[in-house]
Amino acid sequence: MTAPIPRLEIKNLKRAYDGRAVVDDVSLQIMPGQVTCLLGPSGCGKSTTLRMIAGVEMQDSGTIHVDGALICDTVFRIPPERREIGLMFQDFALFPHLSVADNVAFGLKTGTRGEKRARVQELLERVDLARFIDGYPHQLSGGEQQRVALARALAPRPRIMLMDEPFSGLDNRLRDGIRDETLSILKEEDTAVLLVTHEPDEAMRMADEIALMRDGKIVQQGAPYNVYTRPLDRASVAFFSDANVLRAEVSGALAMTPFGRFLAPGVPNGTTVNIVFRPQHVRIDFDRAGKGPMPTASDGTAARGVVARARFMGNESLVEFRMDHDGSILKATVPNVFLPQPGSVMWLTIRRDRCFVFPMEG
User: Fold this and answer.
1) Per-residue pLDDT averaged across 278-307, rounded?
2) What string of DSSP letters covers 276-325?
3) Helical H runs in the chain?
4) Does residue 294 carry a pLDDT above 60?
5) How far is CA 142 from CA 9, 129, 175, 344, in A?
6) Number of folded domains that form the chain
7) For position 20, what pLDDT does the model report?
């Protein structure tokens, strides 16, 4: 049985400016109906990768394929308008002098006037804007304009949709609904989607697969659950959420800390490691308050911390502790409202099954 052909495949793309590698050997495969998020900080090469796929920028090396057919290398190049690739950006740039219908129909190059009108009507109904078909962009809200831009991008039935931070200009009240609506339509159309974002929450919400990008390279790739729970390194943990870090030295495959011993299998003796864990995996031992540390079977040893600050974050509380052993700040999150007074003494443990041990870089 032959393997299915990716809708979009890029192989070893490279792009440099003034001798600096902006995109460095990036490869990806996206199947029909799949949403892949290129996730990473600003300047890591995400948007440059998107522009090369769209055809508005040329790669220095590497190839781009659609449904198994080469569309671009460093010699052969199909022009952007013939690639059957849709584009959505933060600045969706509707034409102010054209009606909503004419904006949506702008990318339709074939078909009679009646066929184009029918396609426009169909798409506007799907984004619940058919009532504005003969209106103009200035008569619409920002969210409505974004949905018109989506309809325009979908009108030519692109095989691939490239999206560069398309929802970042919307307020939080609108963003989730429009994002989910967009994703639903794209999946119904069986479109392969490559979404660029620097927001982990957006990637986790939308993606079937996340490609975590850093310094021009894809450093980790996989399903959102796997990328989140099996991070490559300390920076990968910290990109998705706040992270606490303990530093320790390994002896006999164990790292000793004020919270007890941590397993470090395969790490040579004398190696300094970072033990990284998220605030939601810190446990506050209310029963031990004022009684001193006590080893526990599941979470090692309790360590003493003094509350430095507590804030309510909406559906949880963030408590910052100054730790007795080294004066560092450790963050813990607690469901609902929990706002202890600064100076309160508490004992903390860490979930061993949620900690990551990484050799210290450098």
Assistant:
1) 72
2) EE-GGGEEEEGGGTTT---EETTTEE-EEEEEEEEEE-SSEEEEEEEETT
3) 46-54, 100-105, 113-126, 142-154, 172-188, 200-206, 224-229, 234-240
4) no
5) 33, 13, 11, 47
6) 2
7) 93
Domain termination residue (choose one: 237, 254, 272): 237
pLDDT at 91 over 90: no
DSSP 237-265: HHHHS--EEEEEEEETTEEEETTEEEE-T
190, 213, 237 - which closes a domain: 237
Q: Look up residue 13 and give its two tokens.
A: 């793309």
Mean pLDDT, rounded, of the chain: 90
pTM for the model stands at: 0.86
Tell me what pLDDT residue 93 has. Answer: 79
Domain with 278, as residue range(s), is: 241-359
Note whether 87 and 131 are same-domain residues.
yes
CATH number for the domain harbouring residue 160: 3.40.50.300
Residue 277 C-alpha from the chain's centroid? 19
